[in-house]
Amino acid sequence: MRNQGQLILGVVVVAVGAVLLIGNLFDVDVWVLCWPIGLIVLGLLLLLQPQLISSDATSRQKLLGDIRRRGEWEVTDEEFWLGIGDVTLDMTQAEIPPGETHLRVAQLIGDVRVSVPEEVGLSLSSTAMVGSVRAFGRKRDIFFTPLRLTSENYETAERKVRLETSMFVGDVRIRQAEGAE
Q: For the chain, which terminal residue's Cβ has fewer other Cβ atoms within 10 angstroms, N or C?
C-alpha cells in the first residue's frame, strides 16, 4: 500500500487527539496513561515487525542510535525501523541492481540522508508530522502533509530506488552525486 505511512500517522494523530479530548472532558491526566501505552505499542511493533514494502525485504530495527551504510554494499529491498536516530545511506559506491529497489524508513525522531549516483532514478514519498525535505534542488517543509518527489530521470533510468519515509519529527536530504558509479 503506497499511503500506509500516511494512514499510520493519521491514526496516531486522531488517537492522540481523542485521548486528549477525553482527558479534558473528564479532568483526567492522560499523560500518565499515554507513556506506558505508547511504549507497549512501540514494543509490539518491534516484536511483530510488520513488512510494509514486500515479504522478501529485510528489516532492521534500532530503538536508539543511527544506521549508516557507506562504501561498497549491496542495495536490496529493505526496511529500517528506528525510535530515535538518523539513517544515512550513501549509495555512490554501492551495488544497485537493475530495476526498482524499495527502501522504507519508519522512525519517531531523526533525519534521513541518502546519496545516489546521478544516473540512478529516485522516487521519494515522505510523510511527517513536522519536518522538511531537501531533494533535487528544492526544499519543502512538511506539516501533516505527505510529499512525493521524483528525479527527472526516474522513468528512463535502468536502476531505480523508491524511498518511503514515515516519521514523527525529522528531515530528509537527498543528494544525487555527479560522476559516481
A: N
Tell me the mean pLDDT in the region 141-162.
Answer: 92
Taking the C-alpha atoms of residue 144 and residue 156, their distance in angstroms, rounded to an integer, is 31
Classify the C-alpha dihedral 31-46-110-164 as positive or negative: negative
pLDDT at 13: 73
The pLDDT score that the predictor gives to residue 2 is 47
Task: Give, as one character, the DSSP assignment of residue 48.
Answer: H
Q: 53: which 3 cell numbers? A: 514494502
| Cα 97-103-106 angle, rounded to 5 deg | 170
What's the structural domain count of the chain? 1
- Are 77 and 56 spatial neighbours (Cβ–Cβ below 8 Å)? yes
C-alpha torsion 69→71→74→78, nearest 10: 10
**Which residues span the domain enclosing 16?**
4-177
